Automatic annotation (TrEMBL):
Annotated InterPro entries: Cyt_P450, Cyt_P450_CS, Cyt_P450_E_grp-I, Cyt_P450_sf, Cytochrome_P450_fung
The protein's name: Cytochrome P450
Pathway linked to the protein: Secondary metabolite biosynthesis
The protein's required cofactors: heme
SUPFAM superfamilies registered for this protein in UniProt: Cytochrome P450 (SSF48264)
Family: Belongs to the cytochrome P450 family.
GO molecular function annotations of the record: heme binding; iron ion binding; monooxygenase activity; oxidoreductase activity, acting on paired donors, with incorporation or reduction of molecular oxygen
Keywords for this protein: Heme, Iron, Metal-binding, Monooxygenase, Oxidoreductase
Pfam families xrefs: p450
Residues that coordinate or bind heme: 366
């Protein structure tokens, strides 16, 4: 689909076939990102996802690959299992964010122990300032009138200056502080393994760059993992809870599969994955039903191209409509319904090729996909094994019906909904508590 909005040319890719041809087979021409000066102004241009295609982006991806490639991600499985067990324990008490705990452990070897954590609250503050200052309207205005950024804070309209200055200073702390923590731990000889430790230590590619440039890149990569890997994963887990409230029959079927395969003497782990096709289908359907990033960050063509007789000029903005692909009626009949059967053969095996493209395409596709896949799967299977998720109740004891509702924007979350979470059985509760004592 082609369109022009406010003088910019856009193409929107709604089909997987077109996305494969353009974004994967002709990947280099479609790997660039449009430059938004507001990102730099707010100090948020450190994020890999916003970098233009070029050397700096390549360096980021190379460093991310060290910690996030498939084999490296497998090494995190014991830690992910441990964090999920802590998460289960907390769900019986009060929920904390599993995804934050996992990415902080991976990026910095750091244990998040409370919702008041100093690094986590700093990132929350950064995102708050950024969202406060950067609306779509302001971004467009600034692209059209770049001089606005130079209006001082005391002058009417100088809000850009004030908010941007605060945001830049918090972004600096988000980049520096956790890396400083790793350095201090390394100096004390007590640090645990982490991506930043690996990169600051014996990783040899640092010889390609000057020391301070290299160290700045490591900081950017660490902060990208921290900021890019939490809300996305967290949102998918929230979608799973919502689907379980709405579909008790799916929950029962998944728990029957677990009882048959794993039994009630232990908690499931990664070695069970192959033997649990129905739960795999629940996981795939959770990602398909409500994609967390329905339209990823735009790309921009770096050369002109021709597709099926259509001319695509250089400099066109390219949007990938993952939502449309996940809701393609031919592939997924009745696409708005949550049905694990979308991914299963009539005899209950996982169908090839039904995994939704929620991690994007081509050179800019998500480097955290293996990690996220593991985090979400182990969270889903562990919750199903131990907890019963149901409708919440009001003060008179009546069940509260849930009408699914979602936030809008780049990353989509379910809006808060009432639900009840309780241990499936006394035995399940005992297993959760025992796992936490062991670990
Ligand atoms: C369910 C979880 C996640 C989802 C749905 C998700 C989705 C995406 C999507 C759609 C993109 C853009 C792809 C494109 O343009 O084609 C992306 C990029 C990215 N993701 Fe993820 N992501 C998730 C988790 C993570 C995690 C855990 C990390 C890091 C540990 C991560 C790091 C990144 C980075 C660095 C990029 C930018 C890549 C680039 O521009 O080269 N993501 N992600």
């Amino acid at each position: 689909m082609y369109s022009t909005i406010l003088g910019h040319e856009f193409i929107i890719i709604n089909s997987e076939e077109v996305a494969h041809t353009l974004l994967e087979q002709r990947s280099v021409a479609y790997a660039d990102k449009p430059f938004f000066s507001i990102m730099k102004l707010y100090g948020m241009d450190f994020n890999t996802g916003s970098l233009p295609y070029g050397d700096r982006w390549r360096q980021h991806r190379k460093l991310l690959h060290v910690g996030l490639k498939k084999e490296a991600s497998r090494e995190y499985q014991p830690m992910q299992l441990q964090k999920v067990h802590q998460f289960l324990q907390n769900l019986i008490g009060s929920p904390t964010q599993l995804s934050t705990a996992i990415v902080m452990a991976i990026a910095y070897g750091y244990d998040v122990t409370s919702v008041e954590d100093r690094f986590v609250t700093k990132v929350e503050h950064l995102l708050e300032l950024f969202l406060q200052g950067v609306t779509l309207g302001r971004a467009a205005l600034l692209e059209a009138m770049p001089f606005l950024q130079y209006i001082p804070s005391w002058f009417p309209g100088g809000i850009y200056d004030r908010l941007a200055r605060d945001c830049r200073s918090v972004a600096r702390e988000v980049l520096d502080d956790p890396v400083q923590y790793v350095k201090e731990e390394m100096a004390g000889g007590t640090t645990r393994q982490s991506l930043v430790k690996k990169l600051l230590g014996k990783y040899t590619d640092k010889d390609d760059m000057g020391t301070s440039e290299y160290e700045e890149t490591v900081k950017e990569v660490g902060a990208t993992v921290f900021t890019g890997g939490t809300e996305t994963t967290n949102s998918v887990i929230q979608v799973f809870f919502l689907a379980m409230v709405l579909h008790p029959e799916v929950q029962i079927k998944a728990q029957e599969e677990l009882d048959k395969v794993v039994g009630d003497g232990r908690l499931p782990d990664f070695s069970d994955r192959e033997k649990l096709p129905y739960i795999e289908a629940v996981y795939l359907e959770t990602r398909r039903w409500r994609p967390t990033v329905p339209i990823p960050h735009p790309r921009i063509t770096s050369t002109s191209d021709v597709y099926n007789g259509y001319y695509i000029p250089k400099g066109v903005i390219v949007l990938t409509n993952v939502w449309a692909m996940s809701h393609n009626e031919t592939r997924f009949p009745d696409p708005t319904s949550f049905k694990p059967e979308h991914h299963l053969s009539p005899t209950g095996e996982i169908l090839e090729g039904t995994a939704p493209h929620t991690f994007g395409f081509g050179l800019r596709q998500c480097p955290g996909k293996h990690l996220a896949d593991q985090s979400i799967w182990i969270a889903i299977v562990s919750v199903l094994a131990t907890l019963r998720i149901g409708k919440g109740k009001d003060s008179t004891g009546c069940e509260i019906n849930v009408k699914p509702d979602f936030t809008s924007g780049m990353e989509v979350h379910p809006k808060p909904f009432a639900c009840s979470i309780e241990p499936r059985s006394a035995n399940a509760e005992r297993l959760i508590r025992a796992s936490n004592k062991r670990e």
